[in-house]
Amino acid sequence: MTSTIQRTTLQNQIWKIANDVRGSVDGWDFKQYVLGTLFYRFISENFTNYIEAGDDSIHYADMPDDVITPEIKEDAIKTKGYFIYPSQLFVNVARNANNNDNLNTDLKAIFDAIETSANGYPSEQDIKGLFADFDTTSSRLGNSVPDKNKRLVDVIKGVGGLDFGAFENNQIDLFGDAYEFLISNYAANAGKSGGEYFTPQNVSNLIAKLALHKQTSVNKIYDPAAGSGSLLLQAKKQFDNHVIEDGFFGQEINHTTYNLARMNMFLHNINYDKFNVVLGDTLRNP
Fold first, then answer.
1. Reported pTM
2. Has residue 193 got a pLDDT over 60?
């Protein structure tokens, strides 16, 4: 199967999830739950791959939490920027989601724990508030806890059924492209100003090519109105990872879009020490 067919198939699956589970929730708002779940699955699998380091004898998801030593946790946070215990992994939450009456509050606790694991470390500001728009206790999901949990189960099961391929086979861009596809479609269909949230990939691609024309190496890349990070990521695709030496920088005034940009950095395997996206008004407080 070609990458184009894979990408189209994946995009269709994700769009189907969004339409199937949003129900009476406004599509633009519910986008956050689909994207948040995608991100949660990605960092769970990415973190698992880091811990296992290619050793087939290690099955991180099957380990009890109490075997994790403070030294293991600290080393992981210094490298990855955050920590996820085995019980907190997406695969384990998804396995028991149907039978968990506390799913919405358990998810909130997990997201809080992932964010606070970075407290006091250099990655703190890059991780802080990443799940702020993924409010699993919000009335937007339903008026009762069972209603909220049913929608969450639908999203989790849908995202759990997606086939991203193996990370080592460079399928990570497929995931990122699908992520951007969902943002672009909601921007186009939400009856809002799509430009506020998303710049079409072909526009970002053209701007990146013009900005980087005949450049063989770049020190830093900066976008003063970063949005979802599309332009920064298109610039990344123009070079091999090692050529952009000091990483990616940006500022964004919209809080939701600022979170999307930071998620997008992680989704494209740009580590916390290689990007710095901040929240604020570039013109008044750069």
1. 0.85
2. no
